[in-house]
Amino acid sequence: MKISVFCGVSVDGFLARPDHTLDFLDTGGQEPHGFEEFYGSVDVVVIGRKTLEVVLTFGGWSYGNKPVVVLSSGMLNFSSVKGGVVEQMSGEPAEIVAKLQDRGFKHAYVDGGITIQRFLVAGLVDRMVITRVPLLIGAGIPLFGPVPRDISLRHVATRCYKGDLVQSEYELDRDPHNTDGGWLKAV
């Protein structure tokens, strides 16, 4: 199963402000930067509980009919989700991936700070597309956290967009012989 991250961050590496707001990501008048094509390539979305809480403040369901898996060990109430296909799972990232593969999913979009960090540490992310917004916010929810070892990235492309957005795409190598998703090589 392919696992991808597609996100926007401030230049200082934050996905959201400390209060989880994303206002700085809207630079106004943005030209398309590949998200629609990317989203069309995934067949399941994996997010954490806090990301779900933020998404629900947007006033509508952002994911359409695409299945969304919310990771949480506590009970969640999805009654406010209108028109979406949403379910809850818990477990380690490798367990989540195994469950999704067993159900026939082929490409997952992983989103949300802690969720992205957990999948990265588990060695399960294959591709990251990171769009940097030209703003320093000084504090917030970081894209990256501590890692137990260096994680090697292979640069695929960097693109510039109106509003001084800079998008970089990376591939990550997974060891196909390691069943727990470990990295092919550590730097």
TrEMBL record:
<feature type="domain" description="Bacterial bifunctional deaminase-reductase C-terminal">
    <location>
        <begin position="3"/>
        <end position="159"/>
    </location>
</feature>
<dbReference type="InterPro" id="IPR024072">
    <property type="entry name" value="DHFR-like_dom_sf"/>
</dbReference>
<dbReference type="Pfam" id="PF01872">
    <property type="entry name" value="RibD_C"/>
</dbReference>
<dbReference type="GO" id="GO:0009231">
    <property type="term" value="P:riboflavin biosynthetic process"/>
</dbReference>
<dbReference type="GO" id="GO:0008703">
    <property type="term" value="F:5-amino-6-(5-phosphoribosylamino)uracil reductase activity"/>
</dbReference>
<dbReference type="InterPro" id="IPR050765">
    <property type="entry name" value="Riboflavin_Biosynth_HTPR"/>
</dbReference>
<dbReference type="InterPro" id="IPR002734">
    <property type="entry name" value="RibDG_C"/>
</dbReference>
<protein>
    <submittedName>
        <fullName>Dihydrofolate reductase family protein</fullName>
    </submittedName>
</protein>
